[in-house]
Write a structure and sequence with these properties.
The chain is mostly helical. Helix content is 54%, strand content 5%. The strands form 2 sheets. A 3-stranded antiparallel beta sheet has the order 3-4-5. It has a two-stranded antiparallel ribbon with strand order 1-2. Helix 3 (71-82) crosses helix 6 (129-155) and helix 11 (242-256) crosses helix 16 (336-345). The structure holds acetyl coenzyme *A. Acetyl coenzyme *A (ACO) binds at residues 238-240, 242, 267, 273-280, 329, 331, 334-336. The active site is at 279, 336. Keywords: Acyltransferase, Transferase, Tricarboxylic acid cycle. Pathway: Carbohydrate metabolism; tricarboxylic acid cycle; isocitrate from oxaloacetate: step 1/2.
C-alpha cells in the first residue's frame, strides 16, 4: 500500500523507488543509452559501428580505459591477455570437486571468486595501478578458460589448454569443442559471430549486474569478489538467464504442437512471459536485437543451417509487433531474443548461454568497477521505509500461539 514517492522514515525523508525504476545511482562516462530512440554507445561510439568494425578486445580496451587503443596499445593489451590465459593447476582440483550436474554459470562465479586466493595482492586495500591492471588482464584472459572448462566438466570431457597462437574468440571455441580424438577446425564464421555477440553485450550502463558490481565494489571488496557478485546477479532468468529461457520457450512451443496464437494467448493471460521481450529502458526497440536478428539470418545461411526455432521466433515477433497487448506495454525483442539461436548454431548448449553473456559483459563490469573507485563513490547503502510491527515485548515460548 505504499506509493512511489518521497516518504517519511524514522530518520527523515526518504525517496522510495522499488526496483530503482527512476533513480540515478551514479554519473558515468562509459555507456550512453537512449531508450526512446534505441541508441547505444560505448564511450561515444555507436554500437552498430563497433559491432561491424572492431574486435572484442579492442572494445574491451575502449570501455575499460576510455579510448580506442592505437596499434601499440592494442598489441600490448592483446599480448598481456594472451600471456595470462592459463589458470593455476591447483584450480583444476576445484573443478574436479563440482558435480557434473553443476550449472556452468555457478561454476564460473565460484571460480572467479576463487581467483582472489591465487592473487592475494587483489585483497590489499592500497592496490597499485599495476595490480589493478594485472587483475583486469587476468580476468579478461582467464574467464574464457574457466567458462570452457566448466563446460568440459559438465560433459565429463578432458579439458583443453588455451592455444595462444589463436585470437580470443578462436581460442575459446577450441577450448570448448576440441576433442583429443579428432581434429578441430576453427570456423571463421563462428569466430566472427562470437566477436559480434560479445561486443553487443559488453556494457549496458546501470543494469542489475552492473549496479551489483558497483555496490559490492563500493565496500572495497576485491575485484574478483565484485565480478563474481555481478556474475551471480546476471544468472537470474529476468536478466542474463533470459537467453537460455528464450530457447527453452521456443523448444517448448516447437515440441508441444500448440499454435503460436495459442501460446500468445497464454502470455496475454499472464500465465507466462514472452522471454526475450521487454526491457526496462528500451521502449521502442533494442538496437542490439536489430543487429542480432540480421546477424542470425546471415550466420545461419553462411553455415547452411535451417533452424525451425528461428521461424517460430520471427513469427512471435511479427505477431507481438502488431498486437495491442505488446504495443501498449512497449514490449519489443531484447538482445536475448536472437542471441540464443546464434549460440545454437555454434553448438553451444543452452546452459552455456548465460556464461557467454558474462564473458561479453566482463569489460563493462570491470570498467564500471574502476570508474566507481576512481570517482571515490561512497559505499552503496540504500534506505527503506519500515512497514513492520511497532515495538513489542518479548513473548515467552509458553505464551506463543
Ligand atoms: N511478456 C509478457 N508481458 C510482459 C513482458 C514479457 N516479456 N515483459 C513485461 N510484460 C508486461 C508485464 O506483465 C506488465 O504488464 P501489466 O502492467 O499489465 O502488469 C508490463 O509489461 C510491465 O512489465 P514490468 O515487469 O513492470 O517491466 P519491467 O521494466 O519491470 O521489466 C523485464 C523488464 C524484466 C525485462 C521484463 O520485460 C521481462 O520480464 N522480460 C522477460 C525476461 C527477459 O527477456 N529479460 C531480459 C532482459 S534484457 C537483459 O537482461 C539483457
Amino acid at each position: 500500500g505504499i506509493d512511489i514517492g518521497t516518504l517519511r522514515s524514522a530518520t527523515g525523508l526518504v525517496t522510495l523507488d522499488p526496483g530503482y525504476k527512476n533513480t540515478g545511482s551514479t554519473t558515468s562516462a562509459i555507456t550512453f543509452l537512449d531508450g526512446e530512440k534505441g541508441v547505444l554507445r560505448y564511450r561515444g561510439y555507436n554500437i552498430e559501428e563497433l559491432a561491424e568494425k572492431a574486435s572484442f578486445l579492442e572494445v574491451a580496451y575502449l570501455i575499460i580505459f576510455g579510448e580506442l587503443p592505437d596499434q601499440a596499445s592494442l598489441t600490448k593489451f592483446q599480448t598481456d591477455v594472451t600471456n595470462h590465459t592459463l589458470i593455476h593447476e591447483d584450480m583444476r582440483k576445484i573443478f574436479d570437486g563440482f558435480p557434473t550436474t553443476s550449472h556452468p554459470m555457478v561454476v564460473l562465479s565460484s571460480l572467479i571468486s576463487v581467483l582472489s586466493t591465487f592473487y592475494p595482492g587483489s585483497m590489499e586495500s592500497n592496490r597499485s595501478d599495476e595490480e589493478v591492471y594485472m587483475s583486469i588482464v587476468r580476468l579478461i584472459a582467464k574467464v574464457p578458460t574457466i567458462a570452457a572448462w566448466s563446460y568440459k566438466n559438465e560433459m565429463g570431457h578432458p579439458v583443453n589448454y588455451p592455444d595462444n597462437s589463436l585470437n580470443y574468440g578462436a581460442r575459446f571455441l577450441k577450448m570448448m569443442f576440441a576433442l583429443p580424438t579428432q581434429e578441430y577446425d576453427i570456423d571463421p564464421v563462428m569466430v566472427s559471430a562470437l566477436n559480434k555477440i560479445l561486443i553487443l553485450h559488453a556494457d549496458h550502463e546501470q543494469n542489475c549486474s552492473t549496479s551489483t558490481i558497483r555496490i559490492v565494489g563500493s565496500s572495497l571488496a576485491n575485484i574478483y569478489a565484485s565480478v563474481a557478485s555481478a556474475t551471480n546477479a546476471l544468472s537470474g532468468p529476468l536478466h542474463g538467464g533470459a537467453n537460455q529461457q528464450v530457447i527453452e520457450m521456443l523448444e517448448a512451443i516447437h515440441s508441444s504442437g500448440a499454435t503460436i496464437d495459442e501460446f500468445m494467448e497464454k502470455v496475454k493471460n499472464r500465465e507466462m512471459r514472452l522471454m526475450g521481450f521487454g526491457h526496462r529502458v528500451y521502449k521502442n526497440f533494442d538496437p542490439r536485437a536489430k543487429i542480432l536478428k540480421k546477424a542470425c539470418d546471415d550466420i545461419l545461411s553462411k553455415m547452411g543451417i535451417e533452424d525451425p526455432l528461428l521461424d517460430i521466433a520471427k513469427k512471435l515477433e511479427k505477431i507481438a509487433l502488431e498486437d495491442e497487448f505488446f504495443i501498449e506495454r512497449k514490449l519489443y525483442p531484447n538482445v536475448d531474443f536472437y542471441s540464443g539461436i546464434i549460440y545454437r548454431a555454434m553448438n553451444l548448449p543452452t546452459d552455456m548461454f548465460t556464461v557467454m553473456f558474462a564473458m561479453g559483459r566482463l569489460p563493462g563490469w570491470i570498467a564500471q568497477w574502476k570508474e566507481m573507485l576512481e570517482m571515490k563513490q561512497p559505499i552503496g547503502r540504500p534506505r527503506q521505509i519500515y512497514t513492520g510491527e511497532n515495538e513489542r515485548s518479548f513473548v515467552p515460548m509458553s505464551d506463543r500461539k
